[in-house]
Amino acid sequence: MGSGNGELLNLTLKVWRQKNSKAKGSFETHQLKGISTDMSFLEMFDVLNEKLISENKEAIAFDHDCREGICGMCSMYINGRPHGPKHAVTTCQLHMRSFKNGDTIIVEPWRSIAFPVIKDLAVDRGAFDRIIASGGYVSVNTGNAQDANNILIPKTAADESFSAAACIACGACVAACKNGSAMLFVSAKVSQLALLPQGQVERKERVLKMVQQMDEEGFGNCTNTGACEAECPKEISLENIARLNREMIGASLT
Amino acid sequence: MSQGFLKSSIGKKTVMALTGIFLISFLVVHCFINSLIFFNDGGLTFNTGANFMAHNWLIRAGELVLFAGLILHIIQALILTIENRKARPIGYEMVNGNANSSWYSRSMGLLGTLLLIFLIIHLTHFWVKSRFTGLPGEDANGHENLYAVMQTTFTMLWVVVVYTLAMVSLAYHLLHGFQSAFQTLGLNHKKYTPLIKNIGVAFSIIIPFIFALMPILMYAGVIK
Fold it and tell me: Mutating which of B10, B76, B96, B108 best tests the A interface, going by the most A Cβ atoms within 10 A?
């Protein structure tokens, strides 16, 4: 497989197993032999699942889709960190070369009251969808699309908005935060629209509604530890949280 | 301001930030007045300052606001902590917090609790005596002799140790709290945020250091 150094790893995997959202889960230990360092973390899980299926056991449920680091579906909490030990990568882009032969790897689902476990490592991130639905949209004119260059946008605003829009809503910020706060996610979604002329119509209403929805979902309160920014696979900046605070205070005062 | 704001997570954090900054401003005044002992003139200058603080009506009114601010800071912190605990009912088997954040930014509640315990001891040592149970006579200028209380209190080694450790807690509490307050208030700017952070670090080291010097130097007999 691939052109790596051909090293094969023997690993001990401690994986969270949980039948459904109501069941009480527990850890299950698996021994894996001959794992290629070229494999992605999810491919390693594929190998394990094939083994489980061949043994007539139930495969481990985990979320994944694009496996290119852009969809935001993969969501494993690996050895005490969301998306594992590497900076700015999603679980699917994490490779087994980041681990050593003989390692024990603990894999847990995102832990948040707002992200109930569906099964094993898959959690329901519908709370994020409900936050977006509450205000993460813009009004658009009907009829023909207007010329894109009609609306002038400063380069710096476009760049900042774009970097906020890079958020893939994976939920690693919530998983990393000791308070289970969703502020980095909400701040990215509020920022990407607040920075653009198209986002001005619902600007005040948006931040009020999205923060209200965030609170109602049960996410914790931000204490500015910066864990979210450090663990974000898309390197969403804490500056967005400051902007969210500013938008919220401004919208509430006026 | 709408009532909804103060009930929102960001509103509660805003209260933490504003009361925090207010308490920081108090530290400046407290540190300045207490630093008058460094004149090493048997406390004459210090007692003059303390006397002014004790009998100026504006300062006394400010003292009430200070206690209100402190209590608000504590209550809001408790509410936020309880909410934050609820946000993760099932914890992780393994957490590598040091990989993504500083231990003191994650330990504000613990540091704050240590500071509260210190504050109770500290208020018993000085504030209760100065306001209620009375001070031991007057100095050469005819001012109430709060300095004499300092002298006797800081002859006890355990007091010096507790005060010094409390100032270490204060330093770490401020190290996170100072810049965090500005972030919460949304005061973030490419040009000024690095400056705020640097001032925060300097403040967090200098103020607790000056405070810690007081019991240490009095115990050591450098300040008489």
Answer: B10
